[in-house]
Design a protein that fits this description.
This protein folds into 3 domains: about 5-130 and about 360-365, 3-Layer(aba) Sandwich (Rossmann fold); about 135-155 and about 230-325, D-amino Acid Aminotransferase, Chain A, domain 1; about 160-225, 2-Layer Sandwich (Dna Ligase, domain 1). The chain is built from 12 helices and 18 strands. The chain has helices spanning about 20-30, 55-60, 115-120, 130-140, 140-150, 165-170, 170-180, 205-215, 260-265, 280-295, 335-340, 345-365; strands at about 5-10, 35-45, 50, 75-80, 85-90, 95-100, 100-105, 125, 160, 185-190, 200, 220-225, 230-235, 245, 250, 270-275, 305-310, 315-325. A hairpin with a 5-residue loop joins strand 17 (about 305-310) and strand 18 (about 315-325).
């Protein structure tokens, strides 16, 4: 009998989506196939410390979210002789040792924006999800929209502002952000997810305050044209051919102005979901095709959730954003859409790990110098 594949599930992180990651990781650990995988829980606390957690304690505690133990041994990621990545103790004691693959269940800046992916590349360890380039450009909503537009995917009008320009002259920056747009507009930190720092602005005199708050989370902020739209999501899984799920539709509850962080994670009645989305067959085909185009245009690998707006008036789809490490909580739409499209949660996790190992094998076989 062959040894099990050692999977380090990496969770927590230093972003504003830390708590969401704790929920996602709890679901991933619970659903990983223990006949194939040895699970190694590795947390990153809000100070950036990597810690090796006791799986038996996690399983005994249960619950919808993982806890990060203060006394868990601190570890570091490092390359090992022979090109294997490993998790080694920082000071004395023991560590998990070599790992076969890392499953980053991380969301937000310093997590899914190419930073952790670059570290994993340096350590020469396989990992689930997109590489450095796709992770970085997908996380930056401005760059993602530019690349989508270059690929011919419709994008709603928007402006990108820098914190430097806003700090220099807030009124002038706000005035530039209004050009060509009509109320309402949405103000969004460029590199955040889960609707952190997002504001729906219905009066121009509220724009500066919304920008000031959004700039607490990022150095670049988008001001996007608000659209009377339906929110449509599609899950994509790498493969030959690409596996593109049925689309789902998010319907924020009337007491939420839009699908905010509160509606997503704090309010159990924050939204309802139609899965599959109530679309005509041609609309379903169109949005699934656009999702596949976006996945290819941004050179994603492994998985992604692609979000669109469907204009209620004009009937057209607009690319909103792409998430290369979407939520994996018990109520997250990526695994739900995949399950509705014939890929159950445990099989999905196994497929993602197999893809990561194959991608690592191919990259590791490339020549690194001229012989």
């Amino acid at each position: 009998m062959t040894d099990k594949i050692r999977v380090a599930v990496l969770y927590g992180g230093r972003s504003g989506e830390h708590e969401v990651s704790l929920q996602s990781a709890a679901s991933v650990i619970r659903h990983l196939d223990r006949t194939r995988f040895e699970v190694i829980p590795v947390s990153i606390d809000k100070a950036g410390r990597w810690q090796w957690n006791d799986l038996s304690l996690i399983e005994a505690r249960g619950g919808p979210a993982l806890a990060i133990a203060e006394d868990a041994p601190e570890i570091r990621l490092a390359p090992r002789p022979g090109g294997e990545g490993g998790l080694l103790p920082v000071a004395g004691g023991s560590g998990p040792g070599a790992v076969d693959v890392v499953f980053p269940v991380l969301h937000g800046p310093l997590c899914e924006d190419g930073t952790v992916q670059g570290l994993l590349e340096l350590a020469e360890v396989a990992y689930v999800g997109s590489g450095v380039l796709a992770s970085a450009v997908s996380m930056d909503k401005d760059i993602a929209k530019r690349l989508a537009a270059l690929a011919g995917i419709p994008v709603a009008p928007y402006h990108a502002l820098t914190r430097q320009a806003f700090a220099r002259d807030p009124a002038a920056a706000a005035a530039r952000a209004r050009e060509g747009l009509t109320l309402p507009v949405f103000v969004k930190p460029c590199n955040m997810g889960s609707s952190v720092g997002v504001h729906k602005v219905k009066a121009w005199d509220a724009l500066e305050a919304a920008l000031a708050d959004a700039f607490q989370y990022d150095l670049k902020v988008l001001v996007e044209q608000g659209i009377d739209a339906r929110e449509i999501e599609v899950a994509v899984l790498e493969g030959e051919p690409l596996h593109v799920s049925l689309a789902s539709e998010l319907n924020p509850s009337p007491h939420h102005d839009f699908y905010s962080y509160e509606a997503k994670y704090l309010d159990p009645d924050g939204a309802t979901v139609d899965l599959p989305a109530r679309l005509e067959p041609a609309e379903m085909d169109r949005v699934r095709g656009l999702a596949a185009e976006a996945f290819a245009a941004l050179e994603c690998s492994g998985l992604a959730r692609v979000d669109f707006f469907l204009d209620r008036q004009g009937g057209g789809f607009f690319f909103n954003e792409i998430n290369t490490l979407p939520g994996f909580t018990a109520i997250s739409m990526y695994p739900k859409m995949m399950e509705a499209s014939g890929v159950p949660y445990p099989a999905l996790l196994s497929r993602l790990i197999d893809l990561a190992l194959e991608r690592h094998r191919l990259r590791h076989g490339l020549k690194r110098e001229r012989l």
